[in-house]
Structures are given as structure tokens and as C-alpha cells.
Specification:
- The protein is α/β, with parallel strands linked by helices and about 280 residues long.
- It has two domains: about 5-60; about 65-275, Rossmann fold (3-Layer(aba) Sandwich), CATH 3.40.50.150.
- The chain has nine helices and seven strands, in the order αααααβαβαββαβαββ.
- The protein has helices at about 5-25, 30-55, 70-75, 85, 95-110, 130-140, 175-180, 215-225, 245-255; strands at about 115-120, 145, 185-190, 205-210, 230-235, 265, 275.
- The protein has a seven-stranded mixed β-sheet, with helices on both faces.
- β6 and β7 (about 275) form a beta hairpin.
- The longest helix has 23 residues, at about 5-25.
- It is elongated, with a radius of gyration of 27 Å.
- The chain starts with a helix and ends in a 6-residue tail after the last strand.
- The relative contact order is 0.10.
- Bound molecules: S-adenosylmethionine.
Length: about 280
């Protein structure tokens, strides 16, 4: 509620009380008029209060893309690979925009015939990994899942991040494996980038999701995956624009200095950004 709204509502309340007092104890000739005025002011205040309480974001509706709703039959007839109604169950975040960003990227990879595997750096309990691995299988791609599976590594925590020690340790590789499934999925446990050695040298990627929160693994992830992206491949970087993770934001900004591609900030809750590797010009 803004200051002006607060002043308006307080002023209205005082005026209404005065009018009620006047209606009760004032000259009988004015009773009807003052009761009417008090009632009108009360209604006006109720409307003001209601409007002040609804946030400005409620002026916008979270619409899903029409290709997955109104036009789902046309989507299927064109060979769309997603079944958003059931695939959503494999995505354990309730951020609609985030889910549809994944969907739209997958659709574009299919449409443009971008070859290559999938990878996620920062898996935690598999909330996004389950969806990613399922789509990877559907498209016959291998999905690499990289995490310490023990939470943040102390070596990645900056001086002002010591309070984050132990964060995300409430998980285990076995539990994630059971949730995500093992078919065409390679789990690599340990601190990245040391674990990059476990990825085959010739692996190339169509979609990489970096969701590590911190600056060190964000930079290491970009350094490793960027040169291994297929032309037209996507790197989705979580936590870029939320203003919670300065290290991740700085790593992305620093990394893309001097690169042909830039990043596009996305309107999901945690401020993802996406980069698309330049396509090969024939
Ligand atoms: C925000 S969580 C990932 C969330 C997950 N993508 C989801 O959808 O729920 C961040 C993860 O990054 C992992 N991580 C951070 N730094 C890492 C590093 N250097 N190597 C491997 N994993 C790392 C943490 O262990 C943690 O599980």
C-alpha cells in the first residue's frame, strides 16, 4: 500500500466517523443526508482498500502459450513432442513461465533439428531434472546430470556466502536416480568442473541448464559447455536476474564479454537468462 493510499484511507475513515457522529447527534434535519454521505464514503473506502490490497502484478494474468492450450491439436498435428498436461507432472516447480521456457526451447530444438545431448549442472533433488531427462529420452538424447549431490562445496562460497554452507545437502544421488530414472541418463557426482572429465570428450550439447546459484560453478559451467554447444543450441542460466545471486549474474556478464552471442533475460521467478549459440552460416 502506498503512502498516498494510506493517507487517503485514514482520511476517509475519520470523515466517515464524523459523519456517523453527526448523523447520530446532529440536527434531525440533516440525519438522512449524513447517513447517506457516510454510507457512500464507506463504500468508497471499501473499494479503495480492496484496490490497495491487490498487488500491481495482479493486473496481469499468467497466460500459458496458446500452442499448448487453444492450439494443442494443431501442435500435435505438426508433430509436437511435448504433452504439457502430463509433462508438467515431471516438473516440480510451480513457476509457469519457467516450465514453458523449457517447453519452447525443446520445441525450437526439434523444429531446427539441433543435434546434441542435454545436461543439467545443479540438480539437487531432481525437480527440473526429471522433466529434462524424460524429454531427452523422448528425443533420444543422453542427459548428463551433474551435482555434488551433497550441496554447495565450501570452495565455491565467497567471503559473503559463508552462511550458505550446507545448503542443498538434503539430497542423495540414489534418491535422485530413483526419481529421474536411469535410461539415457548419466549421473556425475562431485564438484564441477573437476567432474567434467567424466563427460565424453566428443559430447556436444543442444540444451544445457545451469542452476548452481553461485558464481564459481556458473563461470565453470559456461567455460566448459559454451564451446561444446551445437550451433543453435541453448544454455539456460538460472538465477541471473533475481538480484539474489550477484555472483551468478557477474559470472554470466563477464563470460559473454567478447562473445558473439548475448544473453536474453527471461521473466520467470528466479530470473533465468538464455543464450542461443549462433547457428552455422552456410
Ligand atoms: C538450486 S539447486 C539446483 C536446483 C535444481 N535444478 C532444481 O530444479 O530443483 C543448486 C545445486 O547446485 C549444486 N552445485 C552448486 N555448485 C556446484 C558445483 N561446483 N558442482 C556441482 N554441483 C554444484 C548444489 O549442490 C545444488 O544441488
Amino acid at each position: 500500500m502506498t503512502r498516498t493510499q494510506k493517507i487517503g484511507i485514514c482520511g476517509g475513515a475519520v470523515a466517515t466517523l464524523c459523519l456517523i457522529a453527526f448523523a447520530l447527534f446532529g440536527h434531525p434535519q440533516w440525519v438522512l443526508f449524513t447517513w447517506g454521505a457516510a454510507a457512500s464514503l464507506l463504500i468508497l473506502m471499501a473499494v479503495l482498500l480492496f484496490r490497495a490490497r491487490s498487488t500491481w502484478t495482479q493486473a496481469l494474468l499468467p497466460w500459458p502459450p496458446e500452442r499448448y492450450t487453444d492450439n494443442i491439436d494443431r501442435y500435435r498435428a505438426r508433430g509436437g513432442v511435448l504433452e504439457p498436461e502430463t509433462d508438467i507432472k515431471k516438473f516440480a516447480h510451480n513457476d509457469q513461465t519457467r516450465f514453458f521456457v523449457f517447453c519452447l526451447i525443446v520445441d525450437q530444438i526439434v523444429k531446427d533439428h539441433v543435434p546434441g545431448d542435454f545436461a543439467e549442472l545443479g540438480v539437487f533433488k531432481g525437480h527440473s531434472a526429471e522433466f529434462l531427462a524424460a524429454i531427452g529420452r523422448r528425443l533420444k538424447r543422453t542427459t548428463y546430470m551433474l551435482d555434488t549431490f551433497e550441496g554447495f562445496d565450501e570452495a565455491d562460497l565467497g567471503a559473503r556466502e559463508s552462511s550458505l554452507k550446507g545448503a542443498f545437502s538434503d539430497t542423495s544421488l540414489d534418491a535422485v536416480r530413483a526419481k529421474v530414472g536411469v535410461e539415457k541418463t548419466v549421473f556425475i557426482k562431485g564438484r564441477f568442473p573437476a567432474t567434467a572429465a567424466a563427460i565424453p570428450d566428443d559430447a556436444r550439447f543442444a540444451l544445457v541448464h545451469i542452476d548452481c546459484d553461485l558464481g564459481e560453478p556458473m563461470m565453470a559451467g559456461l567455460q566448459y559447455f559454451y564451446p561444446r554447444m551445437q550451433p543453435g543450441g541453448f544454455i539456460l542460466m538460472h538465477d541471473y536476474g533475481s538480484l539474489y545471486w550477484d555472483g551468478a549474474e557477474k559470472a554470466v556478464d563477464d563470460f559473454f564479454v567478447g562473445k558473439a552471442e548475448g544473453v536474453i533475460p527471461l521473466p520467470d521467478r528466479c530470473g533465468s537468462a538464455v543464450m542461443r549459440k549462433n547457428k552455422q552460416v552456410r
